[in-house]
Amino acid sequence: MNERGEPHHVLVVDDDRRIRQLLQSYLIENGYRVTAAASAAEARERRRGMAFDLIILDIMMPGGNGLQLMEQLRHGNDPIPVLMLSALADPSDRIAGLTAGSDDYLSKPFEPRELLLRIGNLLKRNAAAAGASDVRFGPFTFNVQRGELRKDGELQRLTGREKEFLRVLSSRPGTPVARADLAQPGAEDSARSVDVQINRLRQKIEVNPSAPVFLLTVRGAGYVLQTD
């Protein structure tokens, strides 16, 4: 069970339908809640509307491979545990996966019981680190691990991009974060898009968004989150 008192929610990302179904059935039988995605793009869409405790990610997929998705997650300082699965068993492939930011790497075919052990270990490790994951500013508390923002204990609604922004800003409290570090990789008009997202986020956390006290603009440097 996770900190919300619910079964751990696992996102399985693999373009092989048979593998997705096998993993989904096996993990559900062992007490997990499972959502499946057939591509990196579908995985991003799933994460916009749901909270996950762990991702099982295939490396080789059409339309954007697992390494690219992994790098995007870590570029945004997303701390979610990731277990990479791949038919590529060469040590160099395993090193590439770990270098991209995955927490563990398992080659196909694999022993299902070993998969369960690795998942359990990653979740325990993540839970141990989660105790120090709360960032506080004024009446707000942001849980970096879960991407949850609460105001005086009441959960606030955030979009996926707003969660990403708060994760990045919370990872460097009191330190300016450049627009480039907040922009989506390859996005057009990224600086303007970042400014728009910042303004929307201020609407949710500032008493007076035009005179912010938590999310400040640092001229020529970017934005800074002032925490307690």
Summary?
With 228 residues, the chain is α/β, with parallel strands linked by helices.
CATH topology of the largest domain: Rossmann fold
Question: In order across it, which strands form the biggest sheet?
Answer: 2-1-3-4-5
Strand content: 15-25%
Give the oligomeric state: single chain
Instruction: Please give the count of helices.
Output: 8
Biggest sheet details = 5 strands, parallel
Radius of gyration: 18 Å
Average per-residue pLDDT, rounded, comes to 84
Summarize the helix and strand pattern as letters: EHEHEHEHEHEEEEHHHEE
CATH superfamily of the largest domain: Response regulator
Low-pLDDT windows of residues: none
Which class of the largest domain in CATH terms?
Alpha Beta
Q: What CATH architecture of the largest domain do you see?
A: 3-Layer(aba) Sandwich
The percent range for helix content is: 40-55%
SS-derived structural category: alpha/beta
Envelope shape: globular
Explain what you see.
With 228 residues, the protein is α/β, with parallel strands linked by helices. It has helices at residues 17-29, 40-49, 66-75, 91-100, 112-130, 160-171, 179-182, 190-205; strands at 9-13, 33-37, 54-58, 82-86, 104-107, 134-137, 140-143, 148-151, 154-156, 215-218, 222-225. The protein folds into two domains: 9-130, Response regulator (Rossmann fold), CATH 3.40.50.2300; 134-225, Orthogonal Bundle (Arc Repressor Mutant, subunit A). It is 41% helix and 21% strand. The protein has a five-stranded parallel beta sheet with strand order 2-1-3-4-5, sandwiched between helices. A hairpin with a 2-residue loop joins strand 8 (148-151) and strand 9 (154-156). The longest helix is centred in the middle third of the chain and has 19 residues, at 112-130. The relative contact order is 0.10.
